[in-house]
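Hi there. Long-time user, first ticket. I'm pasting a complex I've been working with (about 649 residues overall). I'd like to know whether the download I got is complete or cut off, because the file seemed smaller than I expected. Thanks.
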Amino acid sequence: MVTAAGHRASDLVYRGHRVVPGKPAIEGLPATYVEDPAEAETLVVTLEDEHHGLRVELHYTLFAAHAAIAQHAVLSNIGQGPLVVERAMSACSAFPGREFSLLRLAGAWGRERGIECTPLGQGLQAIESRRGASGHQLNPFFALTRCGASEEHGEVFGFSLVYSGNHLSQVEVADDDTVRAMIGLGSFDFAWTLAPDERFATPEAVLVHSPAGLGPMSRTYHRLYRTRLCRGSWRDRSRPVLINNWEATYFDFTPGKVVAIAREAAAIGVELFVLDDGWFGKRDDNRSGLGDWLVNEDKLPGGLVSLAGRIAEEGLRFGLWFEPEMISPDSELYLTHPDWCIHIPGRRRSESRFQLVLDLIRSEVREYLVERLGAILSSAPIDYVKWDFNRNLTEMGSVALEPERQREFPHRYMLGLYQILETLTRRFDHILWESCSGGGGRFDPGMLHYMPQTWTSDNTDAVCRLGIQYGTSLVYPLSSMGSHVSAVPNHQVKRSTPLASRAHTALFGTFGYELDLTSEHEDARRASARHVALFKRHAELIHGGELFRLRSPFANGPGDGNETSWMVVAPERDRALLFWSRVLQPANPAARLLALRGLDPAADYRVTPVDQPEAAVTRTGAYLMRAGLRLPEAVSGDFLSRLWAIERA
Ligand code: DGJ
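Hi, the file is complete. Here it is re-exported in full:
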């Protein structure tokens, strides 16, 4: 914080505190919430620096049903002159002793949210995004894990930021071994002028402590985010099995082709057809058309009403792709409003994927998007929207901001986006909204507040998905993870994996298809019908159950990264679904036992291999968790997976 006189040092003094029932909303920002004031209590601590005229209110919400603390700060200018906030962090915790590792979710496009864990060293270590989006690279999350902590042992502290733009997490080990951990907006391209009487709220941070490893931390995040971060009519409902035409046709589709795919999809039990990129404006490849949100009647005669009607005749509901935040230089919108994109007058406008980003801090741009999308969504029976975002922000600045406020741009962009999402998702609450950013480039709690699911990654290869989904599950619930079965050889990595492995991996998410079913063999379609039925049978368990990770694709432990395993257990512990997968076939594999978790030790369970019901066994929960389930020895081949349905006998 800097005063008009250029002074930076501040001296915040305790002025008082209050405890309020429930959890007040944070204006303009996504956050966890309560439905009844009895669900939480919020402590508000007030600090003041009289000399500078700064008041800071620190908000801490404790939930009755979740072992989590939601934190944010509100800064107010109570003085006479302007103040400039130069860095805004949402939470800061100090720990004595440095015997921690720093766990982060790191990666890139196509390999999002891999788990990296490194011992803390003296000085600063940071996790940051400067891209104007939370990013494929470093998720707005980290955990401090006591050295030696694992899935079920050791102390873990999780920090997660409910935000979708630039972020900074910083862990500092001081010379006396004190560890100071912070998460928030950071200072890159950020400065916010607070005029007298103005307030600024930071995004919310959600902190979770687990005395018993990463598993309980994840389950706390899952329950809280599934039930009190996500919202809307789809929050508590099992998601429809969908088919998306992107990898089936890319831009090259006709109504006939689309309806033929929908027909085959209906035959295997799919419930929703999603028309991806290319249905609007002049958009036959990725070089043009973004911003022109009017159906291309040359490509789709009769428009969306006709197409949605034909899809409905096949028995499927209809969904649509948008990339609302973007504008193609080759578009009608750009011809009319060349200044609507983010740019610095007189400088080159850097394109990525041949597109620019709209300046969402301008009210006329936000109004255009709400009007255009609203018109399309009201024009036809549309039950699902995929909201894509395929590039990052560059040359940030806006003609709508005074020179001294230009560094407010990245955060104001997010506030503009959140305002649009608030308006549209509330107005079209019947729609199932899924966010996407070139796959999982904005898989964060901010987007999940408005849209209860996110396309996890553009990489649909079953082997890559093991790591991507496993890492994502550290924070995010299975109900939020978009996961589809795609064709082989896989379009991203060219690998061919068995259909069952692709389906088994995709089952632990929202489940859907992303391939041309009309060109699949009859056997594959019959098997897919069984997979769809399997998902529907277990959808409630998968989306509402508790996740226990058993073998890590990243680990050096049992399975050595070659095996991945997890299971979902119903809250009543009467049912579970177990997944095990092995990437490469070892020579002469040793007999192996897989210790399960989350069951009732005293109960008897019937454990049935889904593809081999005659091999079912009955064991006690104690046996399954202490001795374990014998893994199949007779299976051979690479990229294999198995599923077991577990039921209280
Ligand atoms: C990126 C998304 O991740 C894909 O699924 C697809 O929707 C394309 N964009 C369309 O341009």
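A couple of notes from our side: The pocket of DGJ is lined by residues 246, 276-277, 321, 388, 390, 436, 438-439, 455, 458 (CB under 6 Å). The mean pLDDT is 96.
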